[in-house]
Each structure stands twice: as structure tokens, then as C-alpha cells.
Amino acid sequence: MEALQMLKFHLKKSRLDFTKGWLMLEKQMVTDKPDKKDEDPLVELLQGNFQNNLDEIMGSIDKDR
After folding, report:
1. What pLDDT, on the 0 to 100 scale, is given for residue 51?
2. Do 6 and 14 form a contact (C-beta atoms < 8 A)?
3. What DSSP letter does each residue of 10-53 carry, written as one string?
4. Helix (H) or strand (E) holding 9
5. 25 assigned to some structural domain
6. Is the pTM of this model over 0.85?
């Protein structure tokens, strides 16, 4: 019985922590300058020939219906 009490005390003392090691530092979450790869793909697509690119987008949306 004493062994069970000791086990209970040990488990109570070392609580399960499912988020242990998942914490991020603030400097990892905040970026001052966005990466080049984070640009909006729609903006990149529409920079060239706007009308043709827009027609292609609308056509692909219509095909998915």
C-alpha cells in the first residue's frame, strides 16, 4: 500500500505536460521583414497580362463547379 502512495505522490508531482517543449520564443513568432516567398501568389499572377490571367483564373474556377 505504501508503494502505491509513493507512486501516486510521484505521478502527482510530475504532472503530464503535453505542451512541454512546444513553447516558441517571441522572436521566433515576430518577423520584421516578410520573406520573398511569402508574397501573395495572386498578386504575382496578375502582375503580367492582367486580362488573360484573370480569364484563366475564372475559367479554372468554372471547371471546378
Report:
1. 84
2. no
3. HHHHS---TTTT----HHHH--SS--GGGS-HHHHHHSSSHHHH
4. helix 2-13
5. no
6. no
